[in-house]
Amino acid sequence: MFWISIILGFAGGLGLILTNVIMGSPPTIIVTLPFLVLLVLPLRKLVKGYQIILLFLICLIPMDVFAVIPGADNSTTLFKILFPFVFILFMGDKLLGDEFHMPLNSMDKWLFFYALFNCILVMIAVNQLQALDTMRRYISMWAMYYLFSRALAKNSWPDWTRKAVIFSAAVSVLFGLKASIDGYNPFSELGVGGVLVEDVRITGASGIDPNAYSILLIVALLWAIVCSMEENDKFRLFYIISVGLILTGIALTYSRSAYLTLIISLMFLLFKVRKLLTPTHIVVLLLLILSALPFAPDSIVDRFETLFIAEQRQSDSSVQRRANYYNVAANILKDHPLLGCGPGNFPVLHQMAKYQDAPVLVGVPRMAHSMYLTVITESGIIGFTFFAGFLISTYLRQRAIYKRLQGRFNFGLALMCSFTALLVMGLFLHLQETKYLWLVLSMTRALDNEGDREEKLDGPGQVQGIKA
């Protein structure tokens, strides 16, 4: 069977070439996919530690410039090559019975119905091509959730996952610090300041938007803070150093939404551990904050002034843009209240005079810059209900994990804090295509299942691989 699969796999590769020459690119995947699967499946015997590949991909998220293959276009990255490879390996193990079965929980069910509903919406979307393109990206994120939540659920992989997230974020900040010192960000053309800010907005070693980069750092920061509080952890010094580096990186993104998100998430963290805080702790913390304010760079203060002043390359201020998004969303919901306008179609309708109240923005496609506005306008009230159910179920699972794990500072607390940060940042960004959102969700699902398995075997206690 091994050699038959190899021969058929190479036959699929030949078919890949022939169909690309004769028929063009569209039918290539359909024609050759069964053969390529047969080629990959025998490799499962040779590649058993594919979780290491997943950790490698996680480390590349805040440093995605290193994922670009030399000589290829920017869209051809290691993510698009390695992720499908690992996914097929995992599914091969699952189908052949080598992987443990993880039953669907409430998170999985809510997400399944939301995903299925969006697939149906493609057929009735205002612009079906735009909906298909958006669904392609959404499906990749949902596949990431499924793979990470299953493949990284066993043994010590959740613990190594959080180390990979913190390490990669800290290293990426070092690249950002160099860019800030040099006064030029070579990784992203988006890393420039507003009209009142001359400083470089760092994006690590990635080409993503500084605001999107900041949420990656906030998640890593909260995980590092909680990990640094754990007792008898030999990596504590690493976590403490990472906290300082990542906090500096967040400041240098000059992201107003990131500052607000960080404040709220830290307040949530303090609330969760309030019983451990003495009046002395609170006084010292307040004094540190108040003493640091006079030393805040003027550029950060200037950045907040751009809330009401148009930035470079913009004809309107941030407040005006966001107010306009809500007006357009309200107009869209009048015509598409239950089913929405279809995945990825908010920018399409944003530029239409029928939905746009500002004449200067007619013909200008813009994202909603809000996860919630995007969901409710593109999938309607029904889709928003499924999505809200998914988010609520996630929080309830995280709270159960936090109570089940030993110690006041455990990974359950880190997940709750980072999820809170993502929910807040969702007010300002479209996060459904943000990998760290699905990473946090998948780790929640992984620990929820691992905790159930541990309780069945040993009774209530600490999840394997996660230190209290």
UniProtKB/TrEMBL annotation:
Keywords: Ligase, Membrane, Transmembrane, Transmembrane helix
GO cellular component, one term: membrane
Chief location: membrane
Matching InterPro entries: O-antigen_ligase-rel_domated, WaaL-like
Gene Ontology molecular function terms on file: ligase activity
Stretches assigned to the O-antigen ligase-related domain: 243-387
Membrane topology classification: Multi-pass membrane protein
Domain of life: Bacteria
Location(s) in or outside the cell: Membrane
Record field: transmembrane: 25-43, 50-72, 109-129, 212-229, 236-252, 280-297, 371-396, 408-431
Pfam families, alphabetized: Wzy_C (PF04932)
Protein name: O-antigen ligase family protein
Species: Desulfobacter hydrogenophilus
The organism's taxonomic lineage, starting at the top: Bacteria, Pseudomonadati, Thermodesulfobacteriota, Desulfobacteria, Desulfobacterales
